[in-house]
């Protein structure tokens, strides 16, 4: 059930002043939106059991977590009763109606492997999306961050299976028309049970698309997306396959991989190595320290390569990917 509440903005400009613990890259150093005469509303999903409203949210202390093409992301603690992630969306290219329709589609998705959209806010000058907060952080940080975590094979399997389930649920939504459009390891968060959860759903379709060069250099997008910048469910599967290969190799897709004199994407590099019967060379050295998992890793590698096939029609559907990764091993 969805409950929504319109909250009158009382001098909104004065309240939107989160001072981050990390330096914000915005010119003012904190969040100071323009005064907005267009009265907005905050819309909550999941019932009326929230103990905070818009004024509480905007007055709360916040820590900036980062910036992306879609906007700035904050960790917000509201009166010690809740911790949420708030995205202040930038480059929104749709009007109020389409924005609200997209948010309502996302807000109806309730699944343990999809980050919950708790609320959204729309006004002329500011658009917010409020999500669940995951204290364990995201997969990219675990694999490549300054405080990287040594993930064993069982942990990686839990993350893969959870994220695959989340993607399949997303693809079933909106009469099987919903597309994420930006699957990558930094958009897969880890829940308290160590399972992968997909976040940032719904943002690709309402914000300005990134330049072609940026899409190509990310390493996650399917070849057809770099040409047309149009995402599909099959391009989501490609991106998920890149994440799967990233988990297996420990390599970031954004880093150029050398093979002879040519720079290669992650999938092409793996195919090149495997063709020379050096399959063991592609796996993360941390995984190679474990025993009795080689067959499982090789099978997962096969699934990842199937997901990154160059032709969209040759890739499996997300529901098929779930079955394949679950069949690698059953994790309790």
Can you tag this structure with a few keywords?
single chain, alpha+beta, Phosphorylase Kinase, domain 1, Transferase(Phosphotransferase), domain 1, 2 domains, seven-stranded antiparallel sheet, 11 strands, globular, disordered N terminus
Fold and architecture overview:
Helix content is 36%, strand content 17%. With 332 residues, it is α+β, with helices and mostly antiparallel strands. It has two domains: 131 residues, Phosphorylase Kinase, domain 1 (2-Layer Sandwich), CATH 3.30.200; 190 residues, Orthogonal Bundle (Transferase(Phosphotransferase), domain 1), CATH 1.10.510. A seven-stranded antiparallel beta sheet has the order 1-2-6-7-5-4-3. A hairpin with a 2-residue loop joins strand 10 and strand 11. The N terminus is likely disordered.
Helix content: 25-40%
Structural class: alpha+beta
Shape: globular
Strand order of the largest sheet: 1-2-6-7-5-4-3
What oligomerization state is this entry in?
A: single chain
Biggest sheet, open or closed, and with what strands and sense?
7 strands, antiparallel
Q: Give the ordered list of helices and strands.
A: EHEHEEEHEEHHEEHHHEEHHHH
CATH class of the largest domain: Mainly Alpha
Estimated share of beta-strand residues: 15-25%
Radius of gyration: 21 Å
Region (Disordered): 15-35
Domain Protein kinase: 59-329
Protein name: Probably inactive receptor-like protein kinase At5g41680
InterPro entries: At_inactive_RLKs, Kinase-like_dom_sf, Prot_kinase_dom
